Amino acid sequence: MDNIRRGNKQLIKELNRAIVINTILNYGPVSRTRISEITYLGLSTVSNIVADLIKKELIYETGEEESSGGRRAILLEFNCNDRFVLGIKIGLDGIIVGLVNMKSKILSRHFIPSPVKSNEEIVLEVLIRAIRDLISKNHIKAEKIVGCGIGVSGLVNQKEGTLVFSKILGWKKIRFKEFLEKEFDFPIFIDKDVNVLTLAEKRFGVGKKINNFICITIGKGVGAGIVIKGDIYHGSYGGAGDFGHIIIDKDGPLCYCGKQGCLETFSSDRFIINKIKEALSNQQDTIIRDFLKKKEDLDSLSVDTVLKAAQKGDIISKNIFQEVGKNLAMGIVSLISLFDPELIVVGGEGVKAGELIFPTMRKVIRDNFPFKKEIKIISLQPGEEGWIIGAAELVLSEVFKTPIFKTKGKVAIKSAFHW
Prior knowledge:
The protein is α/β, with parallel strands linked by helices.
């Protein structure tokens, strides 16, 4: 409790301001009278706060309410395009840099190839250039950028803002926060990519009103973001949710992490590709070659190719996706036993094959919990938006955080309540 600020006039003033800002943000356009009704703050208190916010251009008047007789109330709206946030997703396919307004709307985005297996200097050079290009392209003044959030695959030290290690990307000890804050006059926040997607679902998506849920991503890797009592659980060192590396077969194949039989070796894109190549080498009856650019060109084989074959009725391809569903289910069974979530959300590129994966996955889960209420499992549409919004939310959650906690050391970000 030592980090909680003590009650005084300044704290009460800041709390009231925070309440009014968040009410306008969530209910706007809204009148002063309606704010008073929602917040139980006196109308004079609301009016004084609103006057200050208008002066600082944080909010603006946007017309009049429909009259039911008498004077029309003036409506207020949050000025969501006065300041901006950057949301960045870094993955194996590339880097997506998005410009996001203060209401989490993506205004612009830019994609660049990811410098996979490059050293720290090259990685940061590419990212700095991408950020500068996006700001320049949108004619945004640097002082209007509130902060930048980054979601990246691998083990992340949130406090230091460092990617400790990412086998998929071939990177280690990428000091994003330290170096980017030397280049830009705004704070940098970083977390695992699955956690930023989970944050987006918690704030705006299917997990908005749910306190305990798990967001799983499947594709080139397999991960999980865990929400407990409304907060993302990071663990002691940021390694919580390393779902792809729980062992489901102690005698299974060697994983790149050094262990044998990890879930990821039985459910990721690599597993699907390896299984179809094995079927081809064994001369099994499959139409997969009809979908290759050249009949013998196995280098062009992708998960999308296998999916097309499965959707055309190829039994071998369909069976592989069903096997993925069964393997994922065995991992999810462990998560359910440990965390007892209200909801499981499944995202990532792998959900494009959801109609082939999910039925088997759901059946295995049901069979393992015959006396338990069925766990709700929802799939997310694959796309860039959730990753960008979640990364931006790393910043916005700080901007709009209720100011009840003490600030230690250097202030990381300027709260909306102090502008």
